[in-house]
Design brief:
Family: Belongs to the CPA3 antiporters (TC 2.A.63) subunit F family.
Organism: Thiocapsa imhoffii
Pfam families: MrpF_PhaF
InterPro entries: MrpF/PhaF-like
Strand content: under 5%
Subcellular location: Cell membrane
Structural class: mainly alpha
Number of strands: 0
Radius of gyration: 15 Å
Number of helices: 3
Shape: flat
Oligomer: single chain
Helix content: over 70%
Largest sheet: none
Length: 82
Amino acid sequence: MITLFLLLLLPVSFLILWRFFKGPDAVNRVLAVDALTILGIALLTLVALRDGRVIYLDVALVFALVGFAGVILFGRFLDKGV
């Protein structure tokens, strides 16, 4: 079942990458990066469940915190127009 979920992440990643490269503006690209972060967290979580390794969950948590901080900082950058 976990392998099926891992395979389902592949077409989703292509759609997100398409939005990143074809996005009409910077906001769409930031949302695509945020979606890629969420996709990476899902991938790490599924691999942790499949392999039974807890360290992947720690990496996913750090990845989530860095992704959240990056989106907040880029949002402030877009808001100020600097």
